[in-house]
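Reply to dn_fold:

You asked what the input looked like. This is it:
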Amino acid sequence: MNNIVIITPPDVLNNDAFNICLIHPRKELKEILHTILTKVKINVNVFLYELSTDYDVEWLLNVVKFSDIVLLDLDNCDVLTKIFSSHIIAQPSTFYLTNDNYTPYNIISKNRVYDLAWLESILSRGNNE
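and this is what came back:
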């Protein structure tokens, strides 16, 4: 059985688990991620930064740097997070979701995703380790 730990600002957990940073997720995105995480057999830390948390941009930027996967829901971001979104998107471990076909985020990163189906295969690799 896997261990899933949810971490919010200002806390940090340093262990050998797979680290996912989830930024301003819609309810549906959280539910999909939960379903995926219940299927895999690795330990996962989910660093959650959402509208209901205190604004701690320094925490967010630090977590983005050490996370194995960053999931950014651009359409659900607040104004402050939007200011830092180009920096977050530029990180190689960041995958972003958006319905905005006008803003050229693809110039910064080709890691635009439309769902989380790809994530289950990445996390399942850990089952064999």
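The chain has a mean pLDDT of 92.
Hope that clears it up.
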